[in-house]
Amino acid sequence: MADGSDSDEPWPDDEQKFYDDGKEYWSSINPSVDGMLGGFEKISPTDINGSKAFLRPFLKVGKGNTNNHRALDCGSGIGRITKRLLLPMFDQVDMVEQCQKFLDSARTFIGQESSRVENLFCCGLQDFTPEEGRYDVIWSQWVLGHLTDEHLVSFFKRCKQGLAPNGVFIVKENVSGSDDTQFDDVDSSFTRSKDSYVRAMMKAGLTIVKEEKQRGFPKDLYSVYMFGLR
Ligand SMILES: C[S@@+](CC[C@H](N)C(=O)[O-])C[C@H]1O[C@@H](n2cnc3c(N)ncnc32)[C@H](O)[C@@H]1O
């Protein structure tokens, strides 16, 4: 499924169980910002500010060539990123999330501006295909560890197809400090190395046009990288 690990962690050998366990874990989590961030609500403003600074130069308002008509938030949860990053920058936002409970809370959490959230797709990313050419920006954050290596590459390919002309696909993920992929059997997710993500992007035919490490997070958390892809 993924790169081998030399740790003693239990390693998933059954794909269905890997996805079922992830689903079960998230269904037990409160539909709140703190729930989305595993108890680290306090890092949300730093995260959003880092994302804004990364994204803005791509957009026409930031002197780039990407339109600001429509964005997609992947693994959106209750819509933390939709509300605080995407709706302030885009006319319309779609969300895709596997857990119906989170989507049920989304419009209340987002508030008045949720009228500009067009679609709430309840679907695992492993099964989701963005409509071809629909999105100026596809944002995927803190969810790709829940996909197998094979599904990661195929999801990347479908996201490339989902981009509008001059669109950009942004991946923002934790990366492990070593070359190894680590498996967390609490939430059934992989933490991949940066190289492992880059290899999957290359396999999918994506080009990395910008890359940056998120600054200002507590030192005891995984490093977080942002990639701008086309
Ligand atoms: C750590 S939370 C992050 C939520 C949001 N991206 C944010 O940063 O606020 C992970 C989210 O991914 C969702 N998720 C987990 N596995 C998924 C999958 N296979 N497909 C789609 N969403 C998934 C979870 O239900 C949860 O809402």
Automatic annotation (TrEMBL):
The keyword Oxidoreductase does not apply. InterPro entries: MeTrfase_NTM1, SAM-dependent_MTases_sf. SUPFAM superfamilies: S-adenosyl-L-methionine-dependent methyltransferases. Gene3D superfamilies: Vaccinia Virus protein VP39. It comes from the Eukaryota. The keyword Methyltransferase applies. It catalyses: N-terminal L-alanyl-L-prolyl-L-lysyl-[protein] + 3 S-adenosyl-L-methionine = N-terminal N,N,N-trimethyl-L-alanyl-L-prolyl-L-lysyl-[protein] + 3 S-adenosyl-L-homocysteine + 3 H(+); N-terminal L-seryl-L-prolyl-L-lysyl-[protein] + 3 S-adenosyl-L-methionine = N-terminal N,N,N-trimethyl-L-seryl-L-prolyl-L-lysyl-[protein] + 3 S-adenosyl-L-homocysteine + 3 H(+); N-terminal L-prolyl-L-prolyl-L-lysyl-[protein] + 2 S-adenosyl-L-methionine = N-terminal N,N-dimethyl-L-prolyl-L-prolyl-L-lysyl-[protein] + 2 S-adenosyl-L-homocysteine + 2 H(+). This is Alpha N-terminal protein methyltransferase 1.
